[in-house]
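Subject: design request, 124 residues
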């Protein structure tokens, strides 16, 4: 059974940073593109960033470009989203997601597996 366990969420001050980790299991991690998505109450999930299955390319949504990074370790089946220069608008429930295709990870389409989510709150 495919599973992704996120960790690293919590409370941060504006301008601060948070580093996350997503531990994947139950699927062949190094063949899946991976992404990071978020959702606020009353709105749909928003794709934030994505990374190719081999880690060769990364993609970011405009609101987070230059502030967030994403990386992966295929030997450990781990995804590492990093959030910097946090803003109150970044407050959301954040999810790791797996995509059968790299295109899906780069564009926020074709989701196959979701994590359970971790809450991020940015407030002074």
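Subject: RE: design request

Done. Sequence follows.
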């Amino acid at each position: 059974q495919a599973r992704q366990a996120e960790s690293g969420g919590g409370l941060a001050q504006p301008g601060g940073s948070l580093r996350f980790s997503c531990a994947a299991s139950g699927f062949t991690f190094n063949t899946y593109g991976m992404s990071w998505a978020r959702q606020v109450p009353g709105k749909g999930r928003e794709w934030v960033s994505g990374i190719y299955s081999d880690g060769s390319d990364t993609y970011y949504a405009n609101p987070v470009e230059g502030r967030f990074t994403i990386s992966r370790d295929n030997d450990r089946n781990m995804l590492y989203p990093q959030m910097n220069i946090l803003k109150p608008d970044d407050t959301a429930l954040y999810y790791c997601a797996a995509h059968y295709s790299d295109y899906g990870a780069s564009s926020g389409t074709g989701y196959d597996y979701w994590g359970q989510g971790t809450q991020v709150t940015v407030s002074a």
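The chain has a mean pLDDT of 95.
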